[in-house]
C-alpha cells in the first residue's frame, strides 16, 4: 500500500477523535453549560448536519484547487473549529465551533477516498479506502477513550485543545507524505452533479443514511445508557469506548477486504446482523457483560458497511466521483444527525435510555430493504461483473501515480 495512505489515516484519526469523543463527554459538557443531556446531544446533531452541508460546499469550492493543498486547507479549518469549541464561553458558541470543524469532515474523507482509490489498482480500491478510514476507527480505540479520560479528569476543554493539536499533526503528515496530485483534467461541475442523479448512487447514499444512522441511534447516548441502565461506573465509559472502537477497527478492515470480492452479499449480511444486534441491545444493555459484548458487535457491524458503501458510490458515479464521494460522507453524518435527533425524542418521551436501540434497529432494517432493491435493479439491467458493482471502469481523477508503488 502507498505510504500516502498513512498521511490520510493520520488526518482521519484527528477527525474521528473530535467526531466521537463528544459522546463520552456529553454528561460533563451538559453539566458545564447547565443544559440537559438531550440538549447536549445537539453537539452530535449539529456536527453531523455540518458535515452534510459542508461536504458538497467545500468539495465544490475545492474543484479548482490541487487535492493535496485542499486537504491541508481542510485540516486548517478543522483546527480552528476545535479551538473555538475548547474556549467557548456558552453552549451556542461551542455548537458553532463544532459546526466549523465539521465543514472539513465530509470533503476530507470524500477527496481522500478518491485520492486513496487512485493510488492502487482497481481491485484494491475498497482496501485502500478502508486503510484511510482505519485512522477514524483507531481514533475510537485510542483517541476517543483517552480524550474521554482527559475530559473527565482535567475538563472537556482540555480534550478539545488536544484534538486541535492532532489536527496540526495531520496537516504536517499530509504536507510530508501525500504526493502532489494535479487537479484531474476533463472533470466538470455538471458531470459531478449529473452523477448525483444516478438511481444507484441515490440508493447507496440512502443505505448509508439509514444503516449508519442505526449505529448512532444506539451510541449517541451510550454514556448514560451504560451508567444508568447497565450499572457501569462513570470511569468505565473510557474502556467501554475502547471496546466499541476495537469493533470498529475489525469491522472496517473486514468490510474493506470482502467489499472488493462480494460487495452486495457483504451488505446483506452486515445490515441484517446489525438489525438483530441493535434490537438485542435493548435487552443486553441491562447487564454489564451483555452491554460490553453487544457494544463491540455494534461497532464491528456498523463500520463493516463503510468501505462497501463508499466503494459502491465510487463505482456507480464512475467518471465523476469526487462530489458523490464527499456527499456520501455527508450521508453517513446525515444518518448520525437523524439518529441522534430521533434518539433524543424517544428519551424525552419517557421511553428510557434503551429506547434509541429500537430506533436503530428500524433504521438498519430499512437500509437492508434498500440493499435488496438496489441488487434487484442490478439484476434487471443484467449488469456485468460483481453483483454489487458494475464492471471496473476508470474513475476520473484516480489514475495511478508513481506513489502507488511506494510500500508502507
3D architecture notes:
With 408 residues, this protein is mainly alpha-helical. It has a single domain, classed as MFS general substrate transporter like domains (Growth Hormone, Chain: A, Up-down Bundle), CATH 1.20.1250.20. The chain is 78% helix and 0% strand. It contains 16 helices and no strands. It has helices at 4-33, 37-40, 42-61, 67-87, 91-118, 125-154, 156-177, 189-195, 199-219, 222-230, 237-259, 263-284, 288-303, 306-316, 321-348, 355-380. Helix 4 packs antiparallel against helix 5 (91-118), helix 9 packs antiparallel against helix 14 and helix 9 (199-219) packs parallel to helix 15 (321-348). It starts with a helix and ends in a 28-residue tail after the last helix. Residues 383-408 have low confidence and may be disordered.
Class from helix and strand fractions: mainly alpha
What fraction of the residues are assigned to beta strands by DSSP? under 5%
Shape: globular
What's the gyration radius in Å? 20 Å
Series of secondary-structure elements, N-terminal to C-terminal:
HHHHHHHHHHHHHHHH
Measure the end-to-end span: 6 Å
- The overall number of domains is 1
Name the poorly predicted regions.
383-408
**Largest beta sheet, briefly?**
none
Count of runs of 4 or more consecutive helical residues: 16
CATH topology grouping: Growth Hormone, Chain: A
Helicity, as a percent range: over 70%
CATH homology superfamily: MFS general substrate transporter like domains
Output mean pLDDT. 81
The CATH architecture term is: Up-down Bundle
CATH class: Mainly Alpha
How many strands appear in the DSSP assignment?
Answer: 0
InterPro entries: MFS, MFS_dom, MFS_Efflux_Transporters, MFS_trans_sf
Subcellular location: Cell membrane
Protein name: MFS transporter
Keywords: Cell membrane, Membrane, Transmembrane, Transmembrane helix
